[in-house]
Amino acid sequence: MTPEPITRLTVLLGRLPGIGEKTAQRLALHLLRTPELAHDLAAALGQATERIHLCTRCCNLTDRDPCTLCADERRDARVVCVVEGPPDLMAIERTREFRGRYHVLHGVLSPLDGVGPDELHIRELLARINGGEVQEVILATDPDVEGEATALYLTRLLKPLGVRLTRIAQGVPLGGDLEFASQATLAQALIGRREV
Fold first, then answer.
1. Cross-strand partners of 81
2. Angle formed by the axes of helices 4-14 and 21-33, nearest 10°
3. pLDDT at 193 over 80
4. Is residue 111 a part of any domain in this protein?
5. For the segment 68-126, what is each residue's pLDDT rounded down to a tens digit?
6. What's the predicted TM-score (pTM) here?
């Protein structure tokens, strides 16, 4: 029989995204074999939950306000890229191609999951646009049903405000084979084509 503290630790680790029951058990046992790592992890979790909050401008996770991206004067405040969550922002930042600012929704519209416009950080986005500095909004939501619905909703909401609205390109990935691409992917690639 497994002691209750190990079972509890395993159950809690299993609630993390992408962690199944066996992986959670392996992680729990590893942490018990390396008590220094377990203590460091507990301290880092405590510090993160105490110090991390949302940036009042872009709604990204930060330990200062405004966050470092919003405070960076070298970034173009006239261009705002709207993303679903912090991992998407980090992915775009890794490209080192975007020099504007961000807005993090913290989700997408999903009526089946009870997520409507009021559960997303759309009011904050509207306030930024109404402030007059934003000239272009790039919609960078995922090309799935919820991401497309969110982009369409934002398009209808923002179009009357007079800002330029753009959507990230979608289609065949670099290094991909046309014969293996889905019909929807190929259709988007053709629609989103650009001059060379």
1. 102, 138
2. 130
3. no
4. yes
5. 999 999 999 999 999 999 999 999 999 999 999 999 999 999 999 999 999 999 999 99
6. 0.86
pLDDT tens, position by position, 113-162: 999 999 999 999 999 999 999 999 999 999 889 999 999 999 999 999 99
Mark out the alpha helices in the chain (DSSP H runs): 4-14, 21-33, 35-51, 68-71, 86-95, 122-130, 145-158, 183-191
Residue whose entry in the numeric block shows the structure tokens 């009357």: 160
Is residue 117 reached through a cis peptide bond, with omega within 30 degrees of 0 on the bond before it?
Answer: no
Length of the chain: 196
Distance between CA 108 and CA 148 in Å, rounded? 9
33 and 91, same domain (yes or no): no
CATH of the domain at 16: 1.10.8.420
Q: What is the total count of domains within the chain? A: 2
Question: Following CA atoms 170, 92, 44, 22 in sequence, which dihedral angle do they give, to the nearest 10 degrees?
Answer: 30
DSSP 15-26: TSTT--HHHHHH
According to DSSP, the residues that pair with 127 across neighbouring strands are none
Q: Identify the bridge partners of residue 119 per DSSP, sorted by sequence position.
A: none
Q: Are residues 38 and 95 in the same domain?
A: no
Q: Which domain holds residue 104?
A: 76-169
- How, if at all, do strands 61-62 and 53-54 pair? antiparallel
The alpha carbon dihedral of 93, 99, 105, 111 has a sign of: negative
